[in-house]
Sequence to fold (249 residues):
Amino acid sequence: MTTDSDLLKRYSRQIKLAQVGEAGQRAIQKASVLIVGMGGLGSPVSMYLAAAGVGKLSIADFDIVDESNLQRQIVHSVSDIGLLKTESAARTLKAINPGVDIATYDFTLETEEINELAESHSLIVDCTDNFPTRFQLNRASQASRTPMVSGAAIRWEGQVTAFDPKRPESPCYQCLYPNTDIEAATCAAEGVISPLVGVIGTMQALESINILLGRGQLHGTVWLFDGQFMEWQKMTLPRNPNCPACGGH
Fold:
């Protein structure tokens, strides 16, 4: 059990911030976050949220660690090749912060399972690499009214945004991508520069903490990053009143 003394010592640099304080740190510790995808984005997201003291992290990924992952998926190491990504990641996260409760899901989540997990978590973080799963997570987010932070990275470009169904003005993922038949480019086919996923994943982790503190910033906007020219662009994303996923809210 974490004592007040432990809290002050381990998380002192966060607690010093006026926007956090002891009450905010307690809120972070009471939170539960579902991270889907333990690859390039899920690595920094999970590591920073574990370090920040999120009470429970549920990590989902059915894949195994491959040598080609190690260029960018920093939650895994050479000794983890051949292991399930959830097993490898859980070991790293426990080493970072033994006080965090880690739940692993090393299989493809069905719709009902995703919906149940969304209901029981404070936040969803989409770190996947395919549109069907992203749309599925979006539907679960909308149905459960659970906020979701979404990121994507390919080649030299990345984007990050968030959706909060509890806010009537907040759009959803399908407002951004109305066509559910769209196909995603893959890192295996297109390539990706390794620090890019760190940039986007770290932004996802930062916005996740903002949301857990009740001060989320990214709903209604999409931040686009060009790693070649080190440029950020901010795009306004209004809610589509005719969106099939959130238009009825």
About this structure: The first strand starts at residue 32 and ends at 36. Residues 194-212 form the longest helix (19 residues). The beta strands are 32-36, 56-60, 101-105, 123-126, 148-154, 157-163, 221-226, 231-236. The chain is about 40% helix and 20% strand.
